[in-house]
Design goal:
mainly alpha, 434 Repressor (Amino-terminal Domain), two-stranded antiparallel sheet, 2 strands, elongated
Length: about 170
């Protein structure tokens, strides 16, 4: 049997030889990892977070408190400036009472336009409307009207206002 000290010295010598092996692949040396940036899907997911948060009547500050974040960070997530990680999205879904898949509903799969480039797709007009403060408030108020005749009259009023606006009226 060999001496344990001798074996340790041999192992250290062997490890030194291994760690000194140079990397010859220039592609690995010059390869830069692209910076993680939010894309259109991140913006759409953030938009769905905002929509759901507003539907449940929660402020950005309150959601931030639940997540241990500032309201500014929540704002960046909602605008799609910052990406929401998988674990964080899971937390958001739990807090807002929806499955994680809710945030991906209505997202049209992007078709690559070229190598590594995705087409920019505009948000559907209905989602854009519902994502605005006025659109959400109008929708929520309209849903609280139970009488179908009154709903119809409100709809007729809104249509008449758009007709006046298109005709160049007041």
């Amino acid at each position: 049997m060999s001496d344990p000290i001798e074996m340790t010295e041999k192992r250290l010598t062997w490890e030194k030889k291994i760690t000194k092996v140079p990397i010859r692949n220039d592609n690995l040396r010059n390869h830069t990892v692209p910076k993680k940036q939010a894309n259109t899907i991140d913006a759409q997911v953030g938009n769905r977070v905002r929509l759901r948060r507003m539907l449940v009547g929660m402020s950005q500050e309150k959601l931030g408190d639940h997540l241990g974040l500032t309201f500014q960070q929540v704002q960046k997530y909602e605008k799609g400036v910052n990406r929401i990680g998988a674990g964080r999205l899971y937390q958001v879904a739990h807090i807002l009472g929806v499955p994680v898949g809710y945030f991906y509903e209505g997202i049209v799969e992007q078709i690559p336009a070229g190598p590594g480039v995705a087409e920019e797709q505009a948000m559907p007009p209905v989602m854009e409307f519902l994502s605005s403060g006025e659109g959400l408030q109008l929708s929520l108020a309209f849903m609280r009207i139970k009488d179908h005749k009154i709903r119809r009259r409100v709809l007729d009023l809104v249509k008449s206002l758009t007709d006046v606006a298109e005709d160049g009226g007041p």
